[in-house]
Amino acid sequence: MSNDWPPQFIFTVCQRGAEQVLKQEIAARLADARLAFSRPGFVTFKLGEPCQQPEQFQLPSTFARAYGFSLGKLVGSKTGELAAQVWETPAIKQLVASEGFADIHTWQRDAKLSGTRGFEPGQTLLAQEVERVIRERSPIESLHPMPAVPRPPSRRNGWVLDVVLVEPNEWWIGCHRTTRRFDCWPGGVPPLDLPEHAVSRAYLKMAESLEWSALPILKGDLCLELGCAPGGAAQALLDRGARVLGVDPAEVELEVNEHPNFQHLRRRSAEVSRRQLHGVRWLAADMNVTPTYTLDAVEDIVSNKATAVRGLLLTLKFTDWKLAAQLPGYIERVRSWGYRDVRTRQLASNGREICLVALRSRSQRRVQRPTHTRRRKDAAHASMPKPPHLPANG
């Protein structure tokens, strides 16, 4: 593989098992890209021509968790020697001499599917040690210190050196620009952990979806969640200060159900009256059904004139990977409801599913605060009130 600059190869990192879907997506969106190298969770492509404006390159992909320009691989058994070779890579030396690097990202490709036997994607101890040695040998003095813990995101609009441990003794070298939010996290994985009080992994999925999407959900906003049981995702919203109206015929864990800002409607979404949805600003859905069924349930709510849902946060599950081919149609269906700003991503915490977020316009990504706020004269309440017009649990 060539180490020349401008670059002609790109690398992608994806969930194990999603490689074929990723290849099909890239083939459809980058007609001149050809498959170059593939391992579970790691796929590279060769562009038809070298990228003449690499600082402006963005890969249009739902299934690529992270990507960048691939600049070759190194094979060896000694970490120090491999780290020294990283800085001798011709394209790396050229970038050091011209623009420099703002940060270094090292990570291993996923060992398992997210959520399998306790495995969660993220920087391993081995990747951290490799990063430490690479930083020690860096010709850029500002890169010598290791980042603080928890790791802060890399600064925006800078070059990052990528070192992907495809195998412990096989490193793939690359770089990328931090133009989007997920570009600032090593391997596209935000530094999140499942808290001890979480009642399910759904907490982690919701936390990551909020971190990636940066939806401007304010403290006190009312969020409707379809398929809320057992309550993990609702916990993540509650921990951010939101109020949550959960809809699910199944039971919710007691500690969630007793939260002062949570209301459980133990029924199906079709059985909820629109009067009960008064004041809902955000709608989340994570149901164990096909994407079409999820979208049917959501459309029934947002198409009603009595509701004014500002944004959507949906999990679309692929019971078969073949359903991924219908993703463009799912996106267009959401846009037909008036949500023009639609983004999709397979999160690190996702299973065979993706996250879809939607707003009515891109301008709504900014936090909208009330223009006229009356100053309180009485003391603040210990907790926010229950959502208005809601019946008792059950």
In short:
The protein has helices spanning 19-29, 79-86, 90-98, 125-136, 202-213, 232-239, 254-257, 291-302, 327-336, and strands at residues 9-13, 34-39, 42-46, 66-75, 103-108, 159-167, 170-177, 222-226, 243-247, 262-265, 280-285, 311-317, 341-345, 353-359.
Structure description:
Helices cover 22% and strands 22% of the residues. It is α/β, with parallel strands linked by helices. The protein folds into 2 domains: 9-188, VC0802-like (2-Layer Sandwich), CATH 3.30.2130.30; 202-365, Rossmann fold (3-Layer(aba) Sandwich). Helix 5 packs across helix 6. The chain is elongated. Mean pLDDT is 92; it is low at 370-394.
State the strand order across the main sheet. 2-3-1-4-7-6-5
Class by helix and strand content? Answer: alpha/beta
Which sequence of SSEs, written as H and E, runs from N to C?
EHEEEHHEHEEHEHEHEEHEHEE
Roughly how much helix do the residues carry, as a percent range?
10-25%
Number of helices: 9
Could you give the distance between the termini? 62 Å
CATH architectural group of the largest domain: 2-Layer Sandwich
Which range does the strand content fall in? Answer: 15-25%
What is the molecular shape? elongated
Structural domain count: 2
As a whole number of angstroms, the C-alpha radius of gyration is: 23 Å
Query: Which ranges are low-confidence, i.e. pLDDT below 50, for 5 or more consecutive residues?
Result: 370-394
CATH topology group of the largest domain = VC0802-like
Mean pLDDT: 92
Q: Describe the sheet with the most strands.
A: 7 strands, mixed
Total strands: the figure is: 14
CATH class of the largest domain: Alpha Beta
Multimeric state:
single chain
